[in-house]
Design goal:
Elements lengths: L1 H27 L12 E11 L10 E3 H13 L5 E11 L1 H12 L5 E9 L3 H6 L3 E4 L4 E4 L12 H20 L5 H8 L11 E4 H6 L5 E2 L2 H23 L1
Parallel strand pairs: 1-2, 1-3, 3-4, 4-5, 5-8
Antiparallel strand pairs: 6-7
Length: 243
């Protein structure tokens, strides 16, 4: 009877563990949250549309900022995590949510590296440059354009002023966390004729590097190598302070 009870308990534990992993995959798109039992590097995915205060339709693939922010706090607090890789393939989304994520990543004490894969469009640009070092694969693109609501005519002056100030916050963050100049970023943002019936510029991998928006063209191997260098530098600095 005792053996039968133990077997039942093990089966229940396996089922609950399986459900827990499944829930994490469904909710966060990954099986662990800032625990990394076998690795000192945490991987954060910014995929699809960045969801802010308004919940998007269920058919939209989204990155929910209320999921990302606790992960970043856990990464900062967990002593086992020594570095962060940010994988990006986003169309953009909520501006304030994107800026919040960007500010949190840039304020981490631990080294971080980003990789723009398919795209780092719109508010994805500040997130891409918020890490200590950034990479973009050759085929990836980044769309730089002004902030807008729905494309309708804005009839209230206060609304225009609010959007204009929010746009200034985006420009300030990007230029202070990358090598691109404010004039160049604005030139890309307000370029006419680059996008169909729109204002803005679609920047491909090598161009993003030449403009100073992204540090280097490269993929996972390059990003991991750079992150390991940054983690070694941080350890050396900490050891120097302790001596």
């Amino acid at each position: 009877m005792a053996k039968e009870r133990n077997d039942n308990q093990e089966n229940e534990n396996e089922e609950s563990g399986g459900k827990s992993i499944l829930e994490k995959i469904q909710q966060l798109g990954q099986t662990s949250v800032a625990q990394a039992p076998d690795s000192h590097v945490h991987v954060l995915s910014i995929i699809g549309q960045i969801e802010g205060h308004m919940q998007l339709p269920p058919q939209n693939k989204t990155t929910k900022y209320e999921h990302v922010i606790p992960q970043l706090i856990a990464i900062e607090q967990n002593p086992k995590i020594e570095g962060l890789i940010v994988l990006m393939n986003t169309v953009g989304g909520d501006v304030e949510a994107g800026l919040a994520i960007s500010e949190m990543i840039s304020s981490l004490s631990k080294p971080s590296v980003s990789i723009v894969l398919g795209g780092g469009h719109s508010i994805g640009a500040p997130i891409a440059v918020s890490t200590d070092y950034s990479f973009i694969v050759p085929t990836a693109t980044m769309t730089i354009h002004p902030i807008r609501l729905t494309g309708l005519v804005i009839g209230v002056p206060q609304t225009f002023e609010y959007l204009d100030k929010m746009q200034d916050r985006v420009i300030s963050f990007v230029t202070s966390h990358s090598s691109i100049t404010e004039d160049k970023f604005k030139e890309l943002m307000f370029a006419k004729g680059n996008l169909t019936r729109d204002i803005g510029t679609n920047v491909v991998g090598t161009d993003a590097v030449s403009y100073g928006l992204i540090h280097e063209v490269g993929g996972v191997e390059h990003a991991m190598k750079k992150l390991n260098e940054l983690m070694d530098q941080r350890k050396a600095a900490q050891n120097g302070e302790l001596q």
